[in-house]
Design goal:
alpha+beta, single chain, 50% helix, 8 helices, Glutaredoxin, 238 residues, elongated
């Protein structure tokens, strides 16, 4: 079973949804046969590559109410995150572009498969939300990427080029084709979609439904032996 998750590394609901999906997988009897792949979705492709505005300032300007309103919004989502064991401290983090972070996630998938990509995704989310670090800063990205196992030379090569631009765009286009307008957006076996950071119970139901769809139970015709016309544990009557 393959789970593909469209998300951004600065999306609070993506981190919350990640924890809820992990809770569902912990109770899923076939979890060892599940592969999780992270897909790119830039919430704001126009975000600055040289950020100067904090997250709370950006929220207050975008939705109104200034910094105070931004702090209130931040506090509300942090309270929900705490219920999933997360401690958000990113209010004063700089708001900026995430394109390069997404390119490194594609590099990780190519270089080390979904396991390495998963480690990098977790580290990027944690660095931003729990550490207040900017995912736009190449120094931060390099430290995180190499710390999770990526080769330093390849990280520098990717960050210094436009490699994986097309892969990021392709993910965005596929999300649009699926009808996704926000993230997280979870797709299981390209057959079942889940929009938003749903409760763990919902993720669990979808996992089971997808598993049952790909592993249908055998339909037995005839209802079994009739008048001894089959061999059983007691032998073969004739």
């Amino acid at each position: 079973m393959r789970i593909e998750i469209w998300s951004d590394v600065v999306c609070p609901w993506c981190f919350i949804g990640k924890r809820r999906l992990e809770t569902a997988l912990a109770d899923f009897p076939h979890a060892d046969e599940v592969e999780v792949v992270w897909r790119s979705f830039e919430l704001d492709p126009s975000a600055p590559t040289e950020p100067t505005t904090s997250v709370v300032e950006h929220l207050g300007a975008k939705y109104g109410g200034g910094r105070v309103a931004g702090e209130q919004m931040q506090a509300r989502v942090a309270e929900i995150a705490a219920g999933e064991g997360l401690t958000f401290r990113n209010g004063d983090a700089l708001w900026g572009a995430t394109h390069d972070a997404h390119r490194l996630l594609h590099l990780a998938l190519d270089e080390g498969g979904s396991q390495l990509q998963g480690r990098l995704k977790e580290a990027l989310l944690s660095a931003y939300f729990e550490g207040g670090e900017s995912p736009t800063d190449h120094t931060v990205l390099t430290r995180i990427a190499t710390g999770t196992g990526l080769d330093a030379a390849r990280v520098a090569e990717v960050l210094g080029s436009r490699e994986y631009d097309a892969a990021v765009r392709a993910d965005q286009q596929q999300a649009a084709a699926f009808g996704a307008t926000g993230v997280p957006f979870v797709v299981v076996d390209r057959a079942f979609g889940v929009s938003g950071a749903q409760p763990a119970e919902v993720f669990g139901q979808v996992l089971q439904q997808a598993w049952d769809a790909s592993h249908p139970a055998l339909q037995v015709v005839g209802g079994g032996a009739v008048d001894g016309e089959a061999c059983g544990p007691d032998g073969c009557p004739v």
